[in-house]
Structure formats: structure tokens, C-alpha cells
Amino acid sequence: MAGVASRYHAVWLRDNAWDEGTRASGNGQRLITLSDVPEDIAISEVEVRGETVTITFAPSDERIDYDVNWLLAHCYDLPQIAEKGWISDEILVWDSAMSDHIPTADFGQVKADKEALAAWLDGVVQFGFGKLTGGPVEEGALFEVADLFGYVRETNYGRHFEVRTEVNPSNLAFTGLGLQAHTDNPYRDPVPTVQVLYCLENSAEGGENMVVDGFACAQRLKREDPRGFHLLSSYCARFEFAGSEGVCLRSRRPMIELAPDGALVGVRFNNRSAAAITDVPYADMAAYYAAYRRLGQIIDDPNMEITFKLEPGECFVVDNTRVLHARKGYSGSGSRWLQGCYADMDGLRSTHAVLVQEIVKAAE
């Protein structure tokens, strides 16, 4: 491609070859290890023919073809991002202004139409959540939702859990109390990365669901208090749950999680399950708590939330590493019954990617 220049190391090129001696034809997995690549490998010759680059490697004299477009798509000769808290291009952060643009689809349509399912999953990937309407009003229907994109992740709550008022509940989620926006199960390592909440009854007054973009909140905290953002992303918080017999779950992770290159990859926020924070030095603890308080205030800001009331047969799906969910309090009159289950984003992303590939291929 004229005008485009990029550099590649010989060892990287050999390790990432797609010839039949390097990759299995069925699944693309490597057939070699790095030990099979000479430490002194070098490029001895390059030949370009159209969109194919043929490279000869020394000292083995192997000749391997590479697709120019593949090389450009996987180029690593790029400016390094120095800013902490950056997010990938596929993610769109949002606040209450997105209330009229919730990724929503009809259950029957996404079940029957691959393009409709792909479009809905695309919204979930971008925005971190999505709604489905028109589903069956029957126990266990939430499993059909999980089957659209992945697999149920079983926990100590079972394959699913009931969300309705209980006597002597093991978790505050099973009461009529309002709940602050939170991510679920931060005491697990790894956390379930998808939550599905499916409505079966909802005649109680109140009980509206709310969602908040944790990435947007983290970015806002960074703008207002860069040091606070640094503290919440640099030190681990601790979370714990021991509300059921035979269960004692603990984790140690930062509230704002960054990848080694500074990318924002996760938010954990759940005051109910927070354990004593002991990994912050004395000199930073006051400022850490100030940042913790401010993050909570940002999360509670109505300008950051989207509120909706689920009707029977409706559900919503959230990326539990990013989007916080909440519930307004509801009265004892009427009834409110939701069923919930957990799944994982890797299955959702895999299904989305496969559907997109199939649609593109069919259009060619």
C-alpha cells in the first residue's frame, strides 16, 4: 500500500507466519514453539508481488509468504499511548443523555435472525449493556438469553438466582431496599463478566433499574482529580463475601483497573462487599478515601445514570467489568420477581465476532 511504512522484527515475522508448517489448517494454532526459531534469525531477502510479501530468513533460508493487508492490520510500529486510562476505539462511554439510545432488540427477532443478533451484540460490546423485549414470561427464560451468546457461569448461588423480597435474606439484593449502583461479585477472582437480569413480575411500586457507565465515571474522576484516579488505579482494594454457609470469597483488586499499557479495562465498585482496605500506605490513605468518596458521588450523580422499569418478558445484560447497575427501593405492595444469572464476555465477544465474519462473508 503506497505511502504506508511499518517495521517488523525478523523473530516476530517468523513467529507469526501463517504457512502450513507454522499453523494448523483447521484452527490456526501454532505448530512451532519459539525454541524452534533460531536466536540469530534475520531477514536475508524480501520480494513484493502485488499484495504478497515473500521473506527469506537466514540462517535457515526459509521462504514464507505474508499478506500485506494482514501485516498492516497487525502493525506494532505505532506511537505508544502514554496517557493512563485510555479506552479502545470499540468502546463508547455514555451518561444519561443516552437514555433514548439504549441498545434494545426483540427477543424473538435476535433468536431467529443472525444479523439482528449481531447488531444487538455490537451495541452490548460498545455500550456495555443492552435490553431485550418480548421474551417469554416463564421461569428459566433467562437461560435462553445466555444461550444467544455464551454459557451460564454457575456460582454458589447456583445456575441462577431469584431477585425478590425474602425473609432473612443472605444478600441485600433479595430485599426491597434500594441499592447503590455497583458491580456484582467483586469478591470473586475472576469476577463473572456478564450479568443477565430477567423480569417475570413487576407490579410493585418503584424498583426501577438503573445502569451507570463505570468507564465514564472513571474518566470523569480523572479529569477532576488526576491524583485520585492514580490512587484508585494503583492500589488494591479488598472485597469479601461470607453470607452463606460454606462460602468465604475474597479478592484483592484495584477499584479502577488498568492494563500494563494504561488501558482502562475494569471497574470494581461495591460498598456492600468492600473489606478493610490495607494495601494503601498511611501517607496516601486520606487521599485514597477522598477519591473513593468522590468516585461514589460521581456514580450517584443522576446525570450519569439511565433509569428504566422492566416489564415481564424483558431483560437486560451488562458487562459486569464496566457497567454498574442499581435498583430503586420498592414497596411491599404488588410483586417484583426477577431471575438473574452470570455468563462471560469472552463468549459474547466470540459469538459477535463469528456472526460479523459470517455476515461479511455472505455479502462478498
Automatic annotation (TrEMBL):
CDD domains in UniProt: CAS_like (cd00250)
SUPFAM superfamilies named in the record: Clavaminate synthase-like
GO MF, one annotated term: dioxygenase activity
InterPro entries: AlphaKG_dependent_hydroxylases, GBBH-like_N_sf, TauD-like_sf, TauD/TfdA-like
Protein name: TauD/TfdA family dioxygenase
UniProt family annotation: Belongs to the gamma-BBH/TMLD family.
Gene3D superfamilies from the UniProt entry: 3.30.2020.30, Clavaminate synthase-like
TauD/TfdA-like domain sequence ranges: 104-342
Alphabetically ordered keywords of this record: Dioxygenase, Iron, Metal-binding, Oxidoreductase
Swiss-Prot/TrEMBL cofactor(s): Fe(2+)
